[in-house]
Fold:
Amino acid sequence: MSLPARPSRRKIATMSAKVLNSMLMGESSPFAQELPKALAGMAGWREFAEGELLFHEHQQPDGFYIVRSGKVDLRIMGHLGADFRTAIYGPGAIIGLGTAVSGRPRECTAEATAQTLTNFISRNELLRNMRHSPELTLCIDCLLADEVKRTQQVILKLRNHGRSKRP
Amino acid sequence: MPRAKQTSGKAAPAGALRQHKPSPYGFDMIESCVECEHRGDYRFCNLPAVTIEKLDKMRSAAVYPKGAILFLEGQEARGVFVLCHGSAKLMTSSEQGKTIILRIAAPGEVLGLSAAISGRPYEVTAETLEPCEANFIARRDLMQLLREQGDAGVNAAHELSHHYPTAYRDVRSLGLSTSAQAKMARLLLDWMEEAPGRDQFHMRLTHEEISQLIGSSRETVTRVFSELKRKQLIQVKGARVVLAKRDALETLANS
Structure:
């Protein structure tokens, strides 16, 4: 598969600024659609067959993924072998960004549940670009803020419904 | 359980660079972020001099008593609170109207950051668990700082991503734990891990608050606590909880 042309740093910054301005205007955040396009310039392609793992729990993070097509399950494993699905992601989703930023081990296992095509951005590339572009960094902050909210919603759902109605 | 780093309360020697002012609550107020001795320990505040000077100009410091509400769930995100001293509980309400504590925030944490960055209402209510000092930074100022100072943005990203392990620990506990005993044991072990020496900590939460943290009832928390003491897995001396049998507590947490 041929890789897309890498956009210039200026183009990345422009796209980030557009996202940033709309955020400051208080509009609904469009970065879920825009940022993957900007980040894609730094990315390589990775393809996964059904059942293949993008990463597993406790693994050291080497980067993060943007799902282009297919489907990915996020699971956490119990100590006695039980597992629990926390989310199902489709095209456009960003997976593993939090641990890619923090450098801490993966908190969950990501498994392709269909033939899945992703963009992969390495941790080194991400951190290097964040250091050079405050606007890109702010967009990453926005994505992380979104992720914090989603995780809180999972916790609330679990608290509200307990084990009988797991997501 | 996280604890505030408290200073001695003594006056700074003449000519000292650090500017401290005693608060009515027994800790010295930090008068300047530039001279703050904790700056290097706090994820967000660990910034180069130029950036910290900008931050210092935009903050407004205040001391809050125990039980003060810093912000309310659903309220428009007007800014962030950088917790300098003390701890605060971050809570929300379940569909049944019960209070759920999501996390206990420790000194150095930035409260309301995700809401302020995304421009959405606060997702949680922040209430102080003890007398606290916090710096408020208005959203507009924060966004300007993040936009202009890349290192502040990177620190904000680290601050946001830091809470994943805690959040996933909650998800793991709620989704996979079978008993209140297991959840309680996991919570105690987590608090031990964060305490200096990792074998005892100062309990700042009531049984009611612990029940809101682990998703159980106050009665169950009291019963489980008694059982753990009776089995000598922990010892309780006033507000101090001492770990007596780590292996047994870990086995229980993993059951």
About this structure: Residues 1-30, 163-167 of chain A have pLDDT under 50 and may be disordered. Residues 9-164 of chain A form a domain with the Jelly Rolls fold (CATH 2.60.120.10). The helical segments of chain A are 9-24, 31-40, 97-102, 123-132, 134-161.
